[in-house]
Amino acid sequence: MVKELLHKKEYWLIAGTIVLILLCYQLAFKKTIAAFQVNSRLKTQLTQASDVAYQPGYLERKTKNLEMILARYQADTLSLRGNTLATIASIAEREDVKLSGVPNQDPAFNTGHFIIQKLDFEGNYSALVKTLNHLEEQQNIGVPRSVTLKAVEERTSDKAARKTVMEILMEIKK
């Protein structure tokens, strides 16, 4: 009887199909079904949470960082010509740089939220760069917006001299 079952090809086909289905289930379908169940479970948890995007700790840190950035731009605009320029001049003097010019404020440089003041410095290259670094680090005088370094040749009646000039546009919050 067992010999008869072994010789029937229909039974081998059915047994092979069952073994193939079990093998495919173990190797592929089982992991796919488990991943689908985890996905649907996480989707239901996500919809049950009221507002996942609202994170008060993150918002507080973001607000604090923005306030620190804005504080760097802020200066007393009424005393810009007085105290702020005195501070900038003392920084330049420390590095042996001359604050050669503070032109009148150009209304074209002013925006709705910021005042842009042009400053001219004279000195050697390394001292000018150190002065720029100190100006960037200093609080409550504004932030350098644009810097231009030039080598200018100045001619007097009997000789020609080269000097290095740095023009800075300082941006200050109103």
Shape: elongated
| Gyration radius, in Å | 37 Å
CATH architecture term of the largest domain: 2-Layer Sandwich
Query: Which secondary-structure class do the elements indicate?
Result: alpha+beta
- The CATH superfamily of the largest domain bears the name Ribosomal protein S6/Translation elongation factor EF1B
Low-confidence runs (pLDDT<50, min 5 residues)? none
Termini separation = 102 Å
What's the total count of β strands? 4
- What's the main sheet like? 4 strands, antiparallel
How many domains in all?
2
**CATH class call of the largest domain:** Alpha Beta
The largest beta-sheet arranges its strands as 1-2-4-3
Q: Give helix and strand order, one letter per element, not per position.
A: HHHHEEHEE
Helical segment count: 5
CATH topology title of the largest domain: Alpha-Beta Plaits
Q: In percent terms, what proportion of residues is strand?
A: 15-25%
Q: What is the residue-averaged pLDDT?
A: 80
Share of helix, binned = 40-55%
Description:
The chain has helices at residues 2-7, 9-48, 56-73, 80-94, 125-137; strands spanning 98-101, 114-123, 143-155, 160-173. By secondary structure, the chain is α+β, with helices and mostly antiparallel strands. A four-stranded antiparallel sheet has the order 1-2-4-3. Helix 4 crosses helix 5. The longest helix is centred in the first third of the chain and has 40 residues, at 9-48.
List the helices and strands and how they pair.
Elements (H helix, E strand, L loop, with lengths): L1 H6 L1 H40 L7 H18 L6 H15 L3 E4 L12 E10 L1 H13 L5 E13 L4 E14 L1
Antiparallel strand pairs: 1-2, 2-4, 3-4
Helix pairs in contact: 4-5
